[in-house]
């Protein structure tokens, strides 16, 4: 049965169920978390900092799930919709890895995650209705900004937390692949003003998740 056989109400009920799973059910990865060197006894100050950074990354993956699902829901091209749903499945590994690492660090997820999910889903649904090039261009630019954000966290971690670092390095590699996929499918460069607005939105989410 294809998505065309479902009514819009059916699809939305499915998305609500998906949102509940992302926000309330422990994520299960399809791939094992990246291995790291032995030894994970972090000083208390470093543990707190690592937990805050991983909370930001977890919130980003919550938003990524919503963004991809929203775009897939309204995408007019079945090929694009399928690619977006596949990307969301791959990103679910990142969600699970960050969640697992947070537990190891005795940290918690952001209390603002429902807001990030709802906002990202709405943005994704609007973008998904755009032309193929613009929609895929939005995916590519999002992943580029995520890659830059992850590299910044790797610099902040340095060698102090090899376990978190191994996870972020693998996530960075995957994001680069997603940029390539979106570009290959026909993603176009977005206007400077749109890219700047995306960076501002990401900064709000980053600051909010760091503290809350």
Q: Can you tell me the residue ranges where pLDDT is under 50 for at least 5 consecutive residues?
A: none
Mean pLDDT score: 84
Work out the strand percent: under 5%
How would you describe the shape? globular
Following the backbone from N to C, one meets helices and strands in this order, namely: HHHHHHH
Q: Total domains, how many?
A: 1
| CATH C-level label | Mainly Alpha
Total helical segments: 7
What is the CATH architecture term? Answer: Up-down Bundle
Termini gap: 41 Å
What name does CATH use for the topology?
Ferritin
The count of DSSP E runs of length 2 or more, i.e. the number of strands, is: 0
* Structural class by sheet pairing and helices: mainly alpha
- CATH homologous superfamily designation: Ferritin, core subunit, four-helix bundle
Largest sheet, described in full? none
- Give helix % range: over 70%
What's the gyration radius in Å? 17 Å
